[in-house]
Amino acid sequence: MLAAIxxxxxxxxxxxxxxxxxxxxxxxxLRGVDLRAAWQEARSARPLWLLVCxxxxxxxFILRAARWRVQLTTPDRPVPFKLCLTCTSFGYFxxxxxxxxVGDLARPVMLGARVGLSRSYxxxxxxxxxTVLDPLTLLALLGVVLVSGTTGAVASSGxxxxxxxxxxxxxxxAAAIVVAxxxxxxxxxxxxxxxxxxxxxxARGPRWRSRLLDSAERFGDGLASLARxxxxxxxxxxxxxxxxxxxxxxxxxxxxxxVELGYxxxxxxxxxxxxxxxxxxxxxxxGFHVAVQFGLETLYDVPGERSVPATLVTHLLMLLPAxxxxxWTAWREGSSLLGAWRRDEREEA
Length: 349
Hints:
Number of strands: 0
Largest sheet: none
Radius of gyration: 21 Å
Strand content: under 5%
Structural class: mainly alpha
């Protein structure tokens, strides 16, 4: 089944590159750390805060699934919340064991096949989620803590400091995303005219051109899902609650190891972690760890013997819903999910 979900590029090369990158990042993560002292720090973790981290992690998956359901549901086509939750967890499970964030492709395809939505439509909703909703929400939260000075960082915040560079890069990224959204909205507003103009030469050409335009039209329908005014408020609220839960898990995981950085500091670490997991490693392993370690040691002066176990355990607990709900879904419904994938491929062909 996993082979069917993986992208079409040479599998061996993809796996080798991903593993090499993961090992390289883990080398930098563990370099110069006294592992015996790190183990002692790990044994001193406070169980209550670890439990709060687990609660935050499960809330993240529940809220993410609820937000996705709002994007997909229309008055004449309800989408069950349970299905959104299992598909979301299954996608994260796939991304945790395969390189390249393949789960972001798996979960919308599997859900679409179950409720009769096209692959292009459901993929578009995930594209909106990953490229617009998530980054803008995180950058908005980061902007609030930077402006209010509630990061709790011990590093200097003057010109040229790490905090100043993070703020500048975040502002540039937010501006780029806003410009891209404006351009996309302009294209969507004229999509009927644009598609009609493209269909004239496509009708006289090879069949694949017409299929490509059909997929593009369904993709545009998915992108336009947020154009329904009734979904704006719940989707935006769901985005902030989703990332508030992730930050809660980060905050509690750090506190379990005596890292008192405050909730604003947890937001800052979460932004760095989101950048780290963008690297194509399974489950964000390596990228998450190096990014969070950078934040802890550079911005909060946390020693490596404490930052290493805090980062490792927090990341593991954040992935717990993927390995429990997603792993259970893969074990119980793997064959039916693969059948849905293949049926959807035949319908798209």
